[in-house]
């Protein structure tokens, strides 16, 4: 350990720590606009300058190693003046108007200018060129607002292994953008929005559909329903001052009803449906491979994450047969809403508008895919992020904290704990195993044994082996089989697995594009670091553990929908509405 002094406060940190780490360890805030945790320091923005006793020049705290006996000052007049100059220079070339910016009141640059007491800008700078790219349904990029901090470059290249954006050109005309001045829809961008999640300003934001949704709500000829993804409930509260990891399901439902939606439903119901379909698909693939000796694509990969689907299409098209044919829960819900539910309420698919609240920007892209019109109309009409929902609530003047909790509407009022845990890495796999194990053995898994510890938590590549014993006669081909499963999150880790590992021994692999899974999707409240991720994940597991229904196949409304509509998993009707095939 190293002992050093920050503002005369003694602090101990492990070897290899930076001054920024040491300050954090003793709760001293040093501002930074470029640093991202778990990534190498960049020292680009120079906002984190500090004075180190005996050093000739000020040091960037994010890039300076902590040393034994070091004496650091983080808030002298010289430091404040320097930071003010740095921020004024950034503002002088920033082509943004806070009043009309999507990030107004949620902008790190604006916040820093306020903290530093900047009331005028002492420099007349050349403005960076403003090119606005609205080419994708997921994201909007504005070069003019970019402060070249390169957080998005790190998120896209290192975390996601995509490499869609990087520095181009030099001087004032330099940009952080796709190569050859392309738009995002012309390159391999998977529209995950991790760039937008880490952008400190309004240079990359979600493509906003709030006005479209208000218009639909105001249109008397439309019946507008909304579904909420598993991860929203553990994060939305942050937009209204709650601590990360506060579950606000009941208030969220009440807010959506106040906004004027005709029906408020849970994507979690469709997550339970996904488990019925995807679990049955896995067992069918295993039977075809082990009993009928057919040439079957194994391991089966989960398919609920649209960023992952797009990544596979761009980079690993030979793996597409390995993807489950299940649509994502979002899209299953849309297809169900415009058929089964529309029939129940006597409406045509075209009269029903389906809005999704998702933690994810790629979901905006997913609903426009050609495969997603199986109801006879666009199955999901508009996708709003958690952040956009909070904006709508604020626009409507609703005091979120004062709302009385309400329940989701029928005919999909309940979902299982297995559906809750879709929100975090490892959850889809655990949910699938809960159901598959009981189908195959007929034995109930006791509540204390439902979690599969090796695939929980923030590890990027996790695995487990589960020995199947005591099968029912029809599943005897699985007796004694070790079911090998893997769970991966962040596409950079997926690339590592697919490039460097032999995956032939695995039967089922879960992939989630974003770090930690949907709980830190590109549309969640900013700023998400590992401590926030852990709190949201803990909240989701607590939801699951607090439920009586913890397995998808036990959900009585799932049983009802198979009785009334689909007949059985993988039936002809379910193939038509709930499944699709991705082709090269
Ligand atoms: Fe997700 Fe999913 S879990 S992909 O992370 O399978 O976005 O929350 O809605 O569709 O259910 C996202 C979350 C979400 C789908 C489900
Ligand atoms: Fe890269 Fe994802 Fe941003 Fe596209 S959306 S530029 S893939 S981080």
UniProtKB/TrEMBL annotation:
An MF annotation (GO) of this entry: ferredoxin hydrogenase activity
Keyword terms, alphabetized: 2Fe-2S, 4Fe-4S, Iron, Iron-sulfur, Membrane, Metal-binding, NAD, Oxidoreductase, Repeat, Translocase
Enzyme Commission code(s) on record: 1.12.1.3
Ranges where the 4Fe-4S His(Cys)3-ligated-type domain occurs: 78-117
Record domain 2Fe-2S ferredoxin-type: where: 1-78
Source superkingdom: Bacteria
The protein's name: NADP-reducing hydrogenase subunit HndC
Family per similarity comment: Belongs to the complex I 75 kDa subunit family.
Limits of the 4Fe-4S ferredoxin-type domain: 137-168, 180-209
Subcellular locations according to the entry: Membrane
Family annotation (CDD domains): fer2 (cd00207)
SUPFAM superfamilies (alphabetical): 2Fe-2S ferredoxin-like (SSF54292), 4Fe-4S ferredoxins (SSF54862), Fe-only hydrogenase (SSF53920)
PROSITE patterns according to UniProt: 2FE2S_FER_2, 4FE4S_FER_1, 4FE4S_FER_2, 4FE4S_HC3
UniProt KW 4Fe-4S keyword: yes
Required cofactor(s): [2Fe-2S] cluster; [4Fe-4S] cluster
InterPro entries: 2Fe-2S_ferredoxin-like_sf (IPR036010), 2Fe-2S_ferredoxin-type (IPR001041), 4Fe4S_Fe-S-bd (IPR017896), 4Fe4S_Fe_S_CS (IPR017900), Cytosolic_Fe-S_CAF (IPR050340), Fe_hydrogenase (IPR009016), Fe_hydrogenase_lsu_C (IPR004108), Fe_hydrogenase_ssu (IPR003149)
């Amino acid at each position: 350990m190293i002992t050093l002094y920050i503002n005369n406060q003694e602090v101990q940190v492990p070897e290899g720590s930076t001054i920024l780490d040491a300050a954090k360890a003793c709760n001293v805030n040093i501002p930074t606009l470029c640093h991202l945790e778990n990534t190498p320091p960049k020292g680009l923005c120079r906002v984190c300058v500090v004075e180190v006793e005996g050093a000739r020049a000020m040091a960037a705290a994010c890039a300076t190693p902590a040393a034994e006996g070091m004496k650091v000052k983080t808030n002298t007049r010289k430091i404040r003046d320097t930071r003010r100059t740095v921020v004024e220079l950034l503002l002088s070339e920033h082509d943004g108007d806070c009043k009309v910016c999507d990030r107004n009141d949620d902008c790190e640059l604006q916040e820093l200018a306020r903290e530093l007491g900047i009331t005028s800008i002492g420099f007349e700078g050349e403005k960076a060129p403003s090119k606005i790219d609205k080419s994708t349904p997921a994201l909007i990029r504005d070069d003019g607002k970019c402060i070249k901090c390169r957080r998005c470059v790190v998120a896209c290249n290192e975390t996601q292994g995509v490499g869609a954006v990087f520095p181009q050109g030099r001087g004032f005309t330099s940009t952080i953008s796709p190569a050859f001045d392309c738009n995002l829809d012309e390159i391999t961008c998977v529209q995950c929005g991790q760039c937008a999640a880490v952008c400190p300003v309004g240079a990359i934001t979600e493509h906003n559909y709030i006005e479209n949704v208000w218009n639909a709500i105001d249109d008397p000829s439309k019946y507008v329903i909304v579904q909420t993804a598993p991860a929203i409930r553990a994060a939305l509260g942050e937009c209204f001052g709650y601590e990360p990891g506060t579950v606000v399901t009941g208030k969220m439902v009440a807010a959506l009803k106040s906004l004027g939606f005709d029906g408020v439903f849970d994507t979690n119901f469709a997550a339970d449906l996904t488990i019925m379909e995807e679990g049955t698909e896995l067992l069918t693939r295993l039977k075809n491979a082990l009993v009928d000796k057919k040439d079957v694509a194994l391991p089966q990969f989960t398919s609920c994450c649209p960023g992952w689907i797009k990544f596979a299409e761009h980079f690993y098209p030979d793996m597409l047969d390995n993807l489950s044919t299940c649509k994502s829960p979002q899209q299953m819900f849309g297809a169900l809403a415009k058929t089964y539910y529309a029939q129940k309420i006597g409406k045509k698919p075209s009269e029903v508008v389906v809005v999704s609240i998702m933690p994810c920007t790629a979901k905006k892209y997913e609903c426009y895919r050609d495969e997603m019109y199986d109801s006879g109309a666009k199955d999901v009409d508009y996708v709003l992020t958690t952040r956009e929902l909070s904006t709508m609530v604020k626009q409507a003047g609703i005091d979120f904290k004062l709302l009385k909790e309400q329940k989701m509407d029928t005919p999909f009022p309940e979902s299982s704990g297995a559906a809750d845990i879709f929100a975090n890495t490892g959850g889809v796999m655990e949910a699938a195993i809960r159901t598959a194990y009981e189908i195959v053995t007929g034995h109930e898994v006791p509540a204390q044994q439902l979690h599969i510890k090796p695939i929980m938590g923030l590890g990027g590549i996790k695995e487990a082996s589960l020995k199947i014993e005591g099968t029912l006669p029809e599943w005897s081909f699985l007796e004694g089989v070790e079911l090998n499963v893997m769970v991966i999150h962040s596409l950079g880790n997926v690339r590592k697995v697919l490039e460097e590992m032999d995956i032939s021994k695995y039967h089922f692999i879960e992939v989630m594009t974003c770090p930690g899974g949907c709980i830190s999707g590109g549309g969640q409240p900013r700023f998400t670091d590992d401590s926030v991720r852990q709190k949201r994940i803990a909240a989701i597991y607590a939801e699951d553990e607090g439920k009586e229904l913890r397995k998808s196949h036990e959900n009585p409304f799932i049983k009802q929908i198979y009785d009334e509509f689909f007949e059985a998993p993988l039936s002809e009707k379910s193939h038509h509405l709930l499944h699709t095939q991705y082709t090269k």
